[in-house]
Every structure is written in C-alpha cells, then in structure tokens.
Amino acid sequence: METPETVAFLAGSPERLRLLTHLRESPGSPRDVADSLDVSRRSAQRNLSEFADRGWVRKRDGKYALTPSGELVTRTHANYVETLGTIERFDAFFRHLPDATHLPDPAWLHDATLVVASADQPQAPVSHYVSRLRSRKTDSIRMLAPVLSRLYHDVHAELVFEGVETELVMPADTLETARSLNPLEFRLVRRAIDIYRHDGPVEFGVTLGDGWALAGAYNDDGQLRALVECTHPAFFEWAEELYRRYRKESRPVG
Q: Which of 4, 92, 104, 107 stands the most exposed, by the fewest C-beta atoms within 10 Å?
C-alpha cells in the first residue's frame, strides 16, 4: 500500500473519515453505520469493504471494528485534517511571519484567538492588543516590537505607572527615530523601562506576561496585520524562546 495512494483515497471523500471515526467509538454493521451517519447503505458497505481490503477494519459477528492499523490511520488522518483547518484559519497570521523559524505549531492554536486587520477595521489587532493588556493582570511585561505606536506607548505607560516591570526590545532604526522625534520623552521612557537595541531586522512582535503571550505578524510596511492570543503552555514557551533569542542579540540602551 503506497502512502500517496492512501492519502488520495482518504481525501477522495470526507465520508471515509467520518466512517472511520464512527467505528472508533461504535463498531457496527453496514446498516448501523449507514443509519448513524445518514449515508446510503451501499456507500457504507463499499467503504467498509475497501477498509477491510486495506487491513483497517475486521468483521466479527456481522459488525465491523477498527484494527490497530485502522486506529492509527484514523487518528493520523483526523489530526492531519484538523491541522490543515487550523493553518487555513490562521493563514493571515502565518503568511506575514518573516520565516519558518517564527512558526508556532498549529496544534497549540486550537483554542487561540485570532484578530485580523481588514479594510473596515484596519486597527482591529492593535485595539485588541490594548484591550487585553488593560484587562490581564501581570507583574512583568517583556515585549519585542518592530514599530512604535502611540496606542502601544499609552497602554504600556499605564502598566509602568501601576508598577509592572517592563522590558522592550526594538530595532535600532526605530529607536533612533523615537529618540530624534522626542528626545525628552525618550529619556523619560528609558528611565522607566529597560530598553534593548537590536541591530538586525525585527519583523515580528511578541508580548509576554505572566504565563500568557500575544504574537503579532506585520506586513512590509510595518502594519500589524494579525494578532494571536494564546494561553497554551507550549505556545508561551515558543514565544518566550523567540523573545530570549532577540534579547540575547540586543544591547541595553544607555
């Protein structure tokens, strides 16, 4: 049995995954399966026969049940379909990431929130970011940001005023722009938070609180196109590792 042919066979009809998934929980006859899934008995019988030929099911006392191979095929294909669905759902985030080293595992995003900029609501990701920072409790914030925004500045100033310890990593050109536009404000901000200068490109954003993370994907113009909010522990570890990587490559701003 060749793998490409197996993939093509399973993809040939969504009914096949439904049938296999049903058999995981409830072995049955062709009639049982057809009635439970609201498909024709002929279709159920044909698929069951094909499954049997592939060694995925066995028939006992008139009922079909998954074999161990069938269980593995069902589990693997179900995960594959679910992963593709997640990739499609979060496409606006994935497509604007700088490269594959910035990709989180789609499996972590099952319960994540995605906010996307649109023609009608171009600031939706930024607004969600500000709202979440104001509503979440945390003792510290670590932020990697490719651009400056007055909205970002205001909400982080509020957190600093409340005693939240803050670290900020930004690209050198963005920091120099901020310094030249408003030297006094820059000096005040520098005294309130720990700022780090990254001399390489920063095309991705991440903000870490106490056990939660927000990740932002930007377009070539530096606009936040998609924001992901996720509390999965592995997502937090991934975001923290990325932040640490940029932080390690940066220098404190004196």
A: 4
- pLDDT by residue (tens digit) across 39-64? 999 999 999 999 999 999 999 998 99
pLDDT in tens, 85-118: 999 999 999 999 999 999 999 999 999 999 999 9
pLDDT tens digits along 224-254: 999 999 989 999 999 999 999 999 999 999 7
8 Å CB contact between 75 and 53? no
Q: How far apart are CA 103 and CA 109, in angstroms?
A: 11
Q: Which domains does the chain have, with CATH numbers?
A: 3-86 (1.10.10.10), 91-252 (3.30.870.10)
Q: What is the DSSP string of the chain?
A: --HHHHHHHHHT-HHHHHHHHHHHH--B-HHHHHHHHT--HHHHHHHHHHHHHTTSEEEETTEEEE-HHHHHHHHHHHHHHHHHHHHHHTHHHHTTSSSGGGPPPGGGGTT-EEEE--SS-TTHHHHHHHHHHHHS--SEEEEE-SS--HHHHHHHHHHHHTT-EEEEEEEHHHHHHHHHH-HHHHHHHHHHSEEEEE-S---EEEEE-SS-EEEEEE-TTS-EEEEEEE--HHHHHHHHHHHHHHHHTEEE--
Tokens of 154: 């205001």
